[in-house]
Amino acid sequence: AVVSTQSTGANFALNAHMQGQSSLPPNISQEELCGGTSIDMLRRAALTLIHLAKSSDNKKLFLTHQHRVLNLAMSRFTHPRIGAMIANLLFHMETDWSSS
Asked: Of 47, 52, 58, 50, whose CA–CA distance to 100 is shortest?
């Protein structure tokens, strides 16, 4: 049942990406769109990224994937609260690392 729910959520997300969000059923939740991942889980993942970015040892890794992080922050499928956290991460990466 879990695999079925995750696969359904992934199908919704793929369909929305290919045809636009208006093609989704009106009753789909953000959690279903995220493949069964709750907003709280995404918030914790974003906080983890923020804390990892504070270490200068991870600078090269974050800079390598900076465009992907930006795409995630700007995605219309990212919850606004999570997108804001990720955008804040990018801002702090730029300001903290440019001074070092």
From this structure: 58
| Residue entry with tokens 């906080």 | 47
CB-based contact 58:41 (threshold 8 Å): no
Residue 60 DSSP code? H
The torsion angles phi and psi of 59, rounded to 5 degrees, stand at -55, -50
The gap from C-alpha 26 to its chain's centroid, in whole angstroms, comes to 22
On whether the CB atoms of residues 46 and 81 are closer than 8 A, the answer is no
Amino acid at residue number 73: A
Report residue 83: phi and psi, to 5°: -60, -40
Mean pLDDT by 10 residues, the chain (100 residues): 46 52 54 66 90 87 90 88 92 75
Query: Could you identify the residue written with the tokens 């990406």?
Result: 17
DSSP state for residue 79 in the 8-state scheme: -
